[in-house]
Amino acid sequence: MAHVKVKIYTTPTCPWCRRAKEYFKQLGIPFTEVDVSRDRKGAEEMIRKSGQMGVPVIEIGNQIIVGFDKARIDRILGIS
């Protein structure tokens, strides 16, 4: 698997955000976390990229995933 940049937009109270972060940790893939409840610029960036305000929003390279869609994450990462 090639090195890919991953960014996860989260809030502290979001259970799906925790699951997404745990999944990337299990895979050994580093990610940048943006807490949109504290980071206004990060929240604006997330809305611009995803078109909505719900979390998690996961950015893998230039792909945007709204929600913790494990099957789509695996597909983008080339995991079967």
TrEMBL record:
InterPro entries recorded = GlrX_YruB, Glutaredoxin, Grx-like_ET, Thioredoxin-like_sf
**Molecular function in Gene Ontology:** electron transfer activity
**A UniProt-annotated Pfam family:** Glutaredoxin
Q: What is this protein called?
A: Glutaredoxin
Q: Where's the Glutaredoxin domain?
A: 6-65
For this protein, the parts annotated as crossing the membrane are: none
Provide one Gene Ontology biological process annotation: cell redox homeostasis
